[in-house]
Amino acid sequence: MSKTEILITTDNGQFRARLADNDAARALARMLPLRIKMRDHLRQEKTGELPSSLPDGERQTDFSVGTLGLWEDRDFVIYYDEGRVPAPGIVILGQVSGDLSQFDHPDGVTVSLRNAD
User: Is-above-0.90 flag for pTM?
Assistant: First the structure.
């Protein structure tokens, strides 16, 4: 992980996340601030579309609670459960600190992302 931290805010709380040290995460940081409408997917994640594509990078199939990921080139994902995704996997964008149980419901949510400075 890099030293870059962001804040993720919803109507129900705020979380800190540390971004990964890769091109995709750096490109995400340059897009901030962002507001993203997210929907629930498979009762393990919230996913929403970024305004533009992020660079591809090394992918993995495993994720844990709090993983920030990139599926496809514009699909931003916050995982609130742990598990696996099918190949080709996700690009890791970062890791959220804190209790993500507020995401564990089938409804959509809007998140705001900004730099933590």
Answer: yes
Q: How far is CA 37 from CA 49, 51, 56, 83, 101, in A?
A: 8, 11, 22, 23, 18
Range of the domain at 78: 5-115
Mean pLDDT in consecutive groups of 10 residues from the start of the chain, 117 residues = 94 96 97 98 96 97 98 97 95 96 95 95
Report how many domains make up the chain. Answer: 1
Residues 6+ apart with CB under 8 A from 87: 61
Q: With b meaning 16 or more CB within 10 Å and e meaning fewer, what string describes 62-101?
A: ebebbbbbbbbeeebbbbbeeeebeeebbbbbbbbeeebe
The CATH number assigned to the domain holding 66 equals: 2.40.100.20
